[in-house]
Design brief:
With 225 residues, the protein is mainly alpha-helical. Helix 2 runs antiparallel to helix 5, helix 9 runs antiparallel to helix 10 and helix 10 packs across helix 12. The longest helix is centred in the middle third of the chain and has 18 residues. It is elongated.
Length: 225
């Protein structure tokens, strides 16, 4: 019963991290692996099989029948295989799209940290966090090329509206940026229901595409408000 609850409460991101940490904790000495490490591997493997019953690369991995006599090198090998299988991504996936985002050369170091946090949020399926970060990153990128030097700035909505008026970016980029204006407002409790925004992978994908397009436009250092 305890394990059934574990299966339901552990998603892919958490499972992937758990297997990765287990793999990194296994050492080749002593030659026989610790029993608790073997039992933990067996439990994580059962969880993986329950989440991915159609994945032959995961289903083919077998549990250890006896946790007392497992070679440490064998446990390292098989836990590494499970970790690699869980980290596989399909071509064209959201993770691949996020990995393609490249900040312009004049972006400050703190913006790189924000982008990494956005990537982490996407990887951990933290959709609302990802949407909020996407709006914050877009606003910071636009302010890089804007003459306003006030403490608060004009806000993302005004920045996008001005960019449209000045025809700074392509129409597809502007359309994507306009979606981020609503996502930026999600920090307020009632903004989502008021604007009819249901947080989903599709909206996170749109946010990632908006950042990718904006960064592509800002590769030109002459783009200025």
């Amino acid at each position: 019963m305890g394990f059934a609850y574990q299966v339901k409460s552990m998603d892919k991101a958490l499972l992937t991290n758990a297997v990765r940490q287990l793999h990194s904790s296994i050492k080749p000495t002593p030659a026989t692996a610790y029993g608790h490490a073997v039992r933990q591997f067996n439990a994580l493997l059962r969880t993986a099989k329950s989440l991915f019953p159609s994945r032959p690369d995961i289903v083919a991995i077998e549990e250890f029948a006896d946790s007392r006599y497992v070679n440490a090198h064998e446990l390292m090998d098989v836990s590494g295989r499970l970790s690699a299988a869980l980290e596989l991504r399909t071509p064209g996936s959201l993770g691949d799209l996020v990995a393609e985002i490249r900040l312009p050369a004049d972006a400050p170091a703190e913006l790189s940290a924000d982008l990494q946090e956005f990537c982490n949020a996407v990887g951990l399926n933290l959709r609302k966090s990802a949407l909020l970060l996407s709006g914050a990153i877009a606003e910071a990128l636009l302010l890089l090329r804007h003459s306003d030097k006030s403490e608060r700035g004009p806000g993302l909505a005004n920045l996008v509206a001005e960019a449209r008026k000045l025809r700074l970016f392509g129409r597809d980029t502007l359309r994507q940026l306009e979606t981020l204006v609503d996502y930026r407002d999600l920090i307020h409790v009632r903004a989502g229901p008021r604007n009819g925004i249901v947080i989903s992978d599709t909206r996170v994908e749109h946010a990632a595409m908006a950042l990718k397009l904006l960064c592509g436009e800002l590769e030109d250092p002459d783009v200025r408000f």
